[in-house]
Design goal:
With 493 residues, this protein is of the alpha/beta class. The protein has three domains: 56 residues, no CATH class; 234 residues, 3-Layer(aba) Sandwich (Aspartate Aminotransferase, domain 2); 141 residues, Alpha-Beta Complex (Aspartate Aminotransferase, domain 1). A seven-stranded mixed beta sheet has the order 1-7-6-5-4-2-3, sandwiched between helices. Strands 8-9-12-11-10 form a five-stranded mixed beta sheet, covered by helices on one side. Strand 4, helix 8 and strand 5 form a beta-alpha-beta unit. The protein starts with 34 loop residues before the first helix and ends in a 5-residue tail after the last helix. The N terminus is likely disordered. The chain binds pyridoxal-5'-phosphate. It comes from Cyclotella atomus.
Length: 493
Amino acid sequence: MLFIAPFRRRCVPRNPIKKFMSTSKESGTPLHLLPSAAGAASYALSEKLADEQASRGVSMSTILSHAGLPMSHDGKHNQPLSPPINLATTYERPPDGHYADDGWVYSRESNPTRKLLEDVMGQLETTISTQVVDTSPTSNDDSCKHADGYAFSSGMAAIASLLLAHKSPVNVLIPTDVYHGLPTQFAKALSDHGVLHKSVNMTNCDALKDSIEKVMSTDNGRGGSIVVWMETPSNPLCQVTDIKRVCDMVDEIRQSTGGSLRITTAVDSTWAPPFISQPLKLGADVVVHSGTKYLGGHSDVLLGIVCTSPFTSQGKWLSERVRAVQTSIGSVPSPFECWLTLRGLRTLHLRVERCSKTALELAHFLESHPSVVKCHYPGLRSHSHHDIASKQMKGMTSTNENNLFGGMLSFELESEAMAVAVAGAVRIIRRATSLGGTETLIEHRYSIEPPERRVSPKGLLRVSVGLEDVNDVKEDLEKALQIAAKVVLKDIK
Ligand SMILES: Cc1ncc(COP(=O)(O)O)c(C=O)c1O
């Protein structure tokens, strides 16, 4: 198999250089190597040494830059550097009638391009950046374990599949501030199939504990499963849930029941992709992404990811069940979407570093602007969860000195009219839903949320910060705020 998961070790001979050496018959001393033989010999030796390097690991930037690329050469052929998009839906058996052990049979069940993406995602959720001092409880023996990654046709398909992997009735505790698509999925699809939900203030651990205990005391809680759903930062108010604190609390509850309770800690980390945050290393059982956003990164892919933890027993239990739902329901992405997501991943670190820096600057600007009532961004010191965000939105940069708080922020204006007017006046920023692309987007959330499940204040605008020059975006916002004030306050001169 030419295309292998990145940084997987290869078996190499014990003394790889020997076969390239020729010796003088008389003296037995080595002769000069031809350049081509030298290249081949040093490649073979580097493969051998790569074993040692692999045990030290490489930084996340390097894993990302090579996402999906073959990590070693077969030594014989000119090899394509970008992986192929493997479109085959079916695979021909060998003449003996048995499918070979390489796993490919039918692409709903497994596909080489999808597998490349799933392997990289599993690696990203658990890898340790070599330059970063890792203080997580899993940093020693477990450091080389990778999560199991599963790709889906959208973020919502990933979420639904994860919930269906649980034993019903499934009692989901969701944050009060959450992507509105989640309660919509419950209302329109899953509530008729044994998935119940309740909104809880996820940033208040005591309130959450009370809610869990209440569910546990019901027949549904005892007979089915409980899922504690975190979305952090949350959509659209940028609230930050303390993942480690919640997971530790849930662990205590588990232990108090002797492990008989099926309870999952799940994190939708769409707003904080792997280069910013790694929820599984903070104790979560499972992490979910809308790959449509930062992972794809160019507003042209629809895809979802689920990664189950190799560190928790609930994560391990879920892994096989998620895979069973994924392949039996067939909620899988096309190979092309997987390929585009792999391509997006190769620049994820650069994109999230850039948009985090720009977002912080814009947040400072908005916070001090006279027309802005409130700016929500976890990187602001004034944000009520700034300390927690600083702990868990690390930024896997080579020095780990800088936090990365992501590219999402929201701000509130005095009225709905003012908010819509600001969105109407921007020239560089685009008026569109979604997030995580190269272009800065602005959205009046209140008018897109279903009336019965609104979470956004009327005057709120959400911004997905892109990769433009920060001064251009700031100026665009400044002008839009001025124009909106003139229009709404009837101050047109
Ligand atoms: C936080 C969050 N989770 C999940 C989703 C759903 O993802 P998708 O649109 O890929 O189904 C979204 C979409 O906006 C989101 O913002």
